[in-house]
Amino acid sequence: MGSMEYIYYNNTVYHQSGKSYYKFDILNQTKALKIEKEEKRDLVKFIESRNQDIFKSNRLNKIGRLNPALKRIEGIENILNAMEMIIPEKLRGNFYRNLETVKIYFIEYYSEDERNVQGTYRSSDNSILIYTPEYLKGCESDYKTIIITTLVHELYHLSSSKYDKENRIQKSGVEYCNYFQEKDVTEHDEKLESKPINTPLNEGITTFFEQATLALLGEKSIGISYWVNLAITMQLFILIDKTAIEKSYFKGLGTFLIQKDLNKIINDPCKAEYLMYILNDVSIKDYCANNYYPVLKAENILIDYFEATINNLINNHQIEEAFGTYLALIEHYRIIFNDKEFKIAKVINDNFKNIEITNRNKLDSIKKQFANINIPRRTRQ
Asked: Which runs of consecutive H residues, i.e. helices, occur in 87-223?
């Protein structure tokens, strides 16, 4: 990649070397395509217009001056403005720090596979690589959407990662940490182990914030790579305080705070630790036909926490509301596992059906108990 600069403008990836601008021949990456004079004039005009401040906050504009290559991506101002709104102010350290030096590369290649769109964040050299197949350029709206979606996803990995170059240690998001060994860990502790960035839970939370950002931008979503991971993440956001998840993710603190909050629902550190172990097994990053059993294991544990939460609710209205949310999630799973793209056997759908029936009976029983008890109104302390 060397000193080559990448520019994304008008749904096209350009390359700059010195004062020369060109595009690669998609079938021969070593051959430069000629840029017509009118196209070059528009491109240069775009680049010149980005020499000014384009972001809403002073902090992002300062970063734009430190790393001007960022501003050569059309639409980056909307993305980073939205992310700055979504990431809590006290948790933006990695977001700001990494943006100052990040390099973003757009790699186009020939592919007939609709799903072969990839993005990678490398904390070792603080770079983002966006691989986009050439076929997408035939549909400009989809091309733009996939570029934006992939870029937002990788920027959240950037925002939740810290790399210690001296010791070559990476801390990223909610990677698993052992509850018993690290029960005294604080957010200032610098001894957490380095873990992979692409574990199931980490990808789920990344996708959660990715989708929130796209919604804020008003961008459509033509496909979510980590549907199942996202569904599990949504359940965690329902069960525990979102602050614990946000702090764990954006500060790269591992899962300790999440486990701590789960233990408030069911005081069983082994259960919380086992759930985090399942959700941080990097070998099952992509839940598919060959590894759906971890999903069932995780879901059965989450059901225990959900039922314990229901037991602690104060009235039937709260039970109905929480149970409705739970059933919506189960239905969400069923839709996912019936989708041909996952190619998951019918047995999974049956398993989730049994989970729903079993727990509907349990929850109905809980509701009946509430109905027979005169529950005092909760008063403010």
From this structure: 93-99, 140-159, 200-217
